[in-house]
């Protein structure tokens, strides 16, 4: 199906960071047309944002409630089909719930909800709706992250024994929320972010990468959670020991007070025979290290990579692909699955390779688990996706 999917956006108006990233990503492959939106809780800002984006004035709404009400009044061949939600964490659950209940597919920024209880409820709503759901854990969209997952799944490394994942940032090394920084203000506010700061914002990405690449599930966690900058309400630094369902162990580090660091998220997975490594600062490269052989350097676009990496590669070998392309891969794969559903066809396995509702629930369980462990004298805790 070549026809574009009609998409509406909630959040992401003037002054927002991630909304513009979503719009670039969703438009990169021509799979979507942005047709409507409720871009801000401020009605004037929402209208102004829609005008900047060239939308029809009557389809720029002052709230997401109005968006759903008005769009449902349109003929089916005109109304929105996919809802992209790019609001702060405390405004994830209700619009996602309403979108699914009213028959729309959903793309949602991470973490999935404000609490694990909301995540569990949203999982049931999504299952009952029969609609597609995508959670934007961006880093799983990189071709060589997908290749790393395929190498591990092939068994070439043997039984997995150790997983290391880290996400260092430095942008909150000062009390930015006290200086009028909008992004810092809501991310460090418990009423908007939830129970976690750094662990919710970037720790969830690291956790998702650890499970995605290793193909394993975390069963136990032991966390050290810190508030480094004086006056901050939520964690800005932490480390977590992990136990996986095959007996492997791991270490996760997430910090927003690593002064000078940007976003060099890195994952390493080691088995009996060797290990695989990927980091965002050299995103086109995957390293394979062997116990009794020289290390190998694998590159995006090489003829030797799997169909999963090939499908998500956009440029000729030797040309860098980055964050926006990885983000766009999530949107494209999601669109291909929705279009296959509309055509009554079975999506290809490569198209189905994007984070969904289960990853969202596990991310929220991670957030609440590490904060509970960090506060408790009983450090090791069972990891559960149930309440």
Can you describe this structure in just a few lines?
With 387 residues, the protein is of the alpha/beta class. The two termini are 41 Å apart. The chain has helices spanning 18-27, 43-52, 64-71, 93-101, 116-129, 143-154, 182-187, 190-193, 198-214, 307-311, 323-342, 357-375; strands at 5-10, 32-38, 82-85, 105-108, 133-135, 160-168, 218-226, 237-244, 249-255, 266-271, 274-279, 285-290, 296-299, 380-382.
Write the layout of secondary structure elements.
Blueprint: E1 5-10, H1 18-27, E2 32-38, H2 43-52, H3 64-71, E3 82-85, H4 93-101, E4 105-108, H5 116-129, E5 133-135, H6 143-154, E6 160-168, H7 182-187, H8 190-193, H9 198-214, E7 218-226, E8 237-244, E9 249-255, E10 266-271, E11 274-279, E12 285-290, E13 296-299, H10 307-311, H11 323-342, H12 357-375, E14 380-382
Parallel strand pairs: 1-2, 1-3, 3-4, 4-5, 6-9
Antiparallel strand pairs: 6-10, 7-8, 7-14, 8-9, 10-11, 11-12, 12-13
Helix pairs in contact: 1-11, 4-5, 5-12, 6-9, 9-12
Instruction: Catalogue the unreliable spans.
Output: none
Give a quick account of the main beta sheet: strands, pairing sense, barrel closure: 9 strands, mixed
CATH fold-type name of the largest domain: Dihydrodipicolinate Reductase, domain 2
The proportion of residues in beta strands is 15-25%
| CATH homologous superfamily placement of the largest domain | Dihydrodipicolinate Reductase, domain 2
**E-strand count:** 14
The CATH architecture category of the largest domain equals: 2-Layer Sandwich
Q: Please report the first level of CATH classification, the CATH class of the largest domain.
A: Alpha Beta
InterPro entries: Gfo/Idh/MocA-like_OxRdtase_N, Gfo/Idh/MocA_oxidoreduct, GFO_IDH_MocA-like_dom, NAD(P)-bd_dom_sf
GO molecular function: nucleotide binding
